[in-house]
Design a protein that fits this description.
Distance between the termini: 13 Å
CATH class of the largest domain: Mainly Alpha
Shape: globular
Number of strands: 11
Order of helices and strands: EEEEHEEHHHHHHHHHHHHHEEEEE
Strand order of the largest sheet: 10-9-8-7-11
CATH topology of the largest domain: Hypothetical protein af1432
Number of helices: 14
Structural class: alpha+beta
């Protein structure tokens, strides 16, 4: 059984099912490693939250999740959004610890419970945006934005969970706020992989949370239109970057770098972006980072006018964009690291068969090697097949 488990609950003898990286991006242990006591202590010393292991039936380690998003989290109440802490051992009613391999325990911790911390964060983002909109930027909800940012920074240290959430938080309803949360999660992940540290991650996350705040001033009939926009409507939509910048630029709690990311996250390396048509590194580095997070999160989401691409097709599109429109350094860091985490995932092929990803080439992220029962299918050679969906990370 594949499970996500707290590092402080690990015991020697467990087998890793994914590579383990430090918070600064260094490879610590490879997939397949049988953990020794020294390995376990190293993971604890690195202050990592969780790893993916194989759990034998009857094992005595308590998982955070079984093959998907962690089923519970002490931050679920989020009375204070900024403190997610560590995940506690699950308990049955009456106080007895739930057996790790008990499928009833996993089923009982419903998807709605698993996503409750993020739904609470969405509610805070929604209220903070409304405060900014109605005050014309005169009242910046610093405490609320900072609380959500602290929470997201904590989540961005959990790569497995972030990538799972991008599959989970993809509803077409309330897309603007879900998208802002997803962009913040991806931006925090990229910042961590680039070795920015906690303060840098916090700044990247805040920029992600605020990047589309100007859309609160776009007419709802344009913002929510299910059909393609007319040229006039597209011009109005593009004004959201200037509107957002005006809402946050005078707030003492918002750095100039974050304000510029709100303004510039639609600029492109080849000058084809807006609002200023900046070329190359004329846009700030943070703006270019948020641009990558924005594009990837948008591809992963259902919208009224199109279905999501899914992680493999989205990675391919992102790779294509990096040749001209997106910062190639930032995109490469993201794709190289994210590819490793989709190895082992369960996918549905275009012919309906279900298989497991066993190898991904970052240069062709949408066409991995997939095992279906005893057959290995190399999608880089089998062009008549593609991945239609991902069932489980």
């Amino acid at each position: 059984m594949r499970v996500v488990i707290r590092v402080d609950a690990l015991v020697p003898g467990s087998r890793l099912l994914r590579d383990v990286y430090s918070q600064h991006g260094a490879l610590l242990l490879r997939k397949g490693t049988i953990l020794t006591q020294e390995h376990v202590q190293t993971l604890r010393d690195q202050h990592l939250d969780e790893v993916v292991i194989e759990l034998e039936d009857g094992g005595n380690q308590t998982p955070l999740s079984v093959g998907g998003v962690a089923p519970g989290d002490p931050s679920a109440s989020l009375a204070s959004l900024g403190h997610s802490g560590r995940v506690a051992v699950a308990r049955r009613p009456g106080g007895a610890a739930a057996p790790a391999a008990d499928p009833g325990w996993a089923a009982a911790r419903s998807r709605s419970e698993a996503l409750r911390p993020y739904e609470n964060a969405l509610a805070v983002i929604r209220q903070a945006t409304e405060t900014l909109r109605t005050s014309g930027g005169q009242a910046f909800p610093a405490q609320e934005v900072d609380a959500v940012a602290v929470f997201v920074v904590q989540e961005a240290r959990r790569t497995y969970r972030v990538l799972s959430l991008l599959v989970q938080l993809r509803q077409a309803s309330d897309p603007t706020f879900i998208h802002s949360l997803n962009v913040a999660l991806v931006a925090g992940l990229i910042a961590r992989w680039m070795g920015w540290g906690k303060d840098g991650m916090h700044q990247a996350v805040q920029a992600g949370l605020l990047h589309d705040v100007g859309k609160s001033l776009v007419a709802p009939e344009i913002l929510n239109k299910p059909e393609p926009l007319t040229p006039a409507e597209r011009a109005q939509m593009q004004e959201h970057v200037r509107a957002g910048y005006e809402l946050v630029r005078n707030a003492s709690e918002v750095s100039q770098d974050i304000a510029l990311a709100v303004l510039q996250h639609h600029e492109r390396m080849d000058g084809s972006g807006y609002p200023q048509g900046l070329v190359g590194e004329e846009a700030t580095f943070l703006s270019r980072l948020v641009a990558v997070a924005d594009v990837y999160a948008a591809m992963m989401a259902d919208r009224a006018y199109r279905r999501r691409l899914g992680p493999f097709r989205a990675a391919e599109e992102l790779e294509d964009e990096s040749f001209s429109r997106l910062d190639p350094q930032i995109t490469r860091v993201f794709l190289d690291r994210v590819a490793a985490f989709y190895v082992g995932s369960t996918v549905v092929l275009s012919d309906g068969r279900v298989g497991q990803v066993v190898f991904m080439d970052p240069r062709e992220p949408s066409r991995p090697l997939v095992r279906v029962e005893k057959e290995f299918i190399d999608l880089s050679r089998r062009h008549e097949l593609e991945i239609n969906d991902i069932l489980m990370l």
